[in-house]
Amino acid sequence: MATGIKDKAVILGMGCSKFGERWDANAEDLMVEAFEEATKDAGVERHQIEAAWFGTAIEDQHVGKSGVPLAMTLRLPYIPVTRVENYCATGTEAFRGACYAVASGAVDIALALGVEKLKDTGYGGLPQRGRGNLNNLYWPNLSAPGSFAQLATAYRAKHGVDRSDLKRAMAHISVKSHENASKNPKAHLRNRITEDDVLNAPMVAEPLGLYDCCGVSDGSACAIVTTPEIARSLGKTDLIGVKALQIAVSNGQELQYDEWDGSYFATTRIAAKRAYQEAGIRDPRSQVSLVDVHDCFSITELVTLEDLNISAEG
After folding, report:
1. DSSP state, 36?
2. Distance between CA atoms of 50 and 125, rounded to whole angstroms?
3. Which H/E stretch holds residue 96?
4. Residues of the chain whose pLDDT is less than 50?
5. pLDDT tens across 39-71, in order?
6. 143-211+248-307 architecture in CATH?
């Protein structure tokens, strides 16, 4: 019976580039920034890395297909490099591959790196590329702000939340996120804002205003993983262990006349349940001390915290 990867892999080192409108750099420059910081943090040399996973979603604008761009840019020593893409979970997918390789005993040290050069698209948000005929038939011209605005509307309808109350709750999230960014020299948008700034900002997709929507950015991040035993042999203490890694990919059921009402993320609930089980967590609210969630829009964070059983639903 499968036992998961709890405590079988640890993060040896991490690094990231500065995020923002990086007109001064191409994707390869950003990859090098992240890689050099990660190897320095890990205390390992390039030749010690035995396998790599490379995550990028909109590769047509910068690096192109395959794992070759990562191997060439970092001059990796003829090791297996796997390129992955899974929409917003692309970075997680690369990290998962590296952790599974280490946890299985296939390699001792593995690398995961993600990069995007979204500002080079010349598009204000995510580019609306063709996704295939079937996708275009049932998902025509769906924009990110539009779809998450529907999430907010469905949430309001299900829980009977007044519009002004929901707007203020989302504003609180946006203010907090900007406050965190103001303290991070590598963040893209570092200006502090107030709740009034959020509430009075131009509307993008009702009820999401300007500050409820994330910007698109150029950047790269890198993680190097190994086993706990190897990390200790390298002199590492206070190890950052991987307790669980779970991804639940939608099969489309919730969009096709299912009981799903659009007010929550069905996949998040499933993945969270599996991850907590793998990690041995029974009461997330009391056992989890730090939560960093995907917050492409302020409503996303609000709903995700409920789907993770950190906050009560509604």
Report:
1. H
2. 36
3. helix 90-103
4. none
5. 999 999 999 999 999 999 888 778 888 999 999
6. 3-Layer(aba) Sandwich (3.40)
